[in-house]
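Table 4 source record.
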Amino acid sequence: MKKTTKGKIAALVVGLSLVATACGGNKGGELEGMKGTYPSVKLTDEFQNGMNEFWTSKGNDALVDFSYAGEAFDSVMLVALAAEAAKTDGSALAAQIQAVSAGGEACSEFAACVAIIAAGGDVNYEGVSGPQDMNGNGEPIKASYGVYEFDSTNRFDAASAKEYVLADLPASDIVPLEPPTVERVGDGVLKIGSLLPETGSLAFLGPPEFAGVEYAISLINAAGGVLGKPVEYVQGDSGDTSTDTASTTVDRLLGENVDAIIGAASSSVSLTVIDKITAAGVIQFSPANTSEKLSTYPDNGLYYRTAPSDILQGAVLANLIAGDGVSTVYIMALDDAYGTGLAASITKNLEAAGVTVVGTKIYDPKATTFDAEVGEIKTANPDAIMLVTFDEGSRILRTMVEQGIGPKDKKVYGCDGNMGNALGENFDSGK
């Protein structure tokens, strides 16, 4: 049948609309209503303003998101305080990290904590990212998660969560301290390296994490340094698992005789280098690793993290979803230790809450398109969709919108791997 001019115009309008959506031209809030979590507390204005003033003074753009900035800051503080308590920058300081994180006299400023140690007291460092009480396997036993929701601008206020949810590690997961099993003698100067994402699928987390590390070192040095000398710093890129950037960086950092490496952000990246780092008697301290696999990994007693295990995030996300009255969920998760581990934790907790998981799609994060995977979710027709992704999540969401199952059509949930304004920016720009 021959189309009328009116019909052609209508078809053209629809076609242009689809092209605009695919190319990032539609900025009409397609992500509005998407909820998610990441470990966070309400950071004080003093901390955010102080870090931003420091960060911009170095020629960097002001931070908008502070994802894992507090955790990165606290990682450095705990290493520095442990070195003071152990009176060495060698591997023996690892045995003091748990001790300075809990059980003693509370303090939050480096100088105040050092004064307690110097007087022969025990320190309980209260971090900017929350109480950093460490389990014997080097991870927090308490956590706070912020719940965030995208608005009509495809953004959210990263400084103010809708709510903060507290979670405790199950008593069955509390274990005794594993002391370091590799001896490395220090030289009296605490040197910290970073293994954080300048490039790769988590590069959006790089600026706040680097800022947290460098800001902490600046405050420590302003207070007199560690063991009477300034802390030294060597920066390094982690990349992601599609490259050998992390391994190359670790080789360089070890060659420069660092005492501790802050990073990686990605659990899967950490798993590629943890053996090399800890076998050298160097502490690996991640501000963002959450994979459960790292809870029991044989790490020579030298791996720590300020980010909580996904044992906790899985429960928080499941409670959030169930609390929204959802009956059925489809989970889409990237194929790595983080993705599959968090998906399993969410599933376990959803089922315990009486919510049915109608399907789980484990996908290749390096795929160029996600039409087939999203098509399967559309066919399953769940009440809600749980996305465990990194930056490829913006392309998955674009495909979901195109197939009519985006956040305006379904309840959609995210997690710490994707909840950030970088997701909205990538979505809008078509990345």
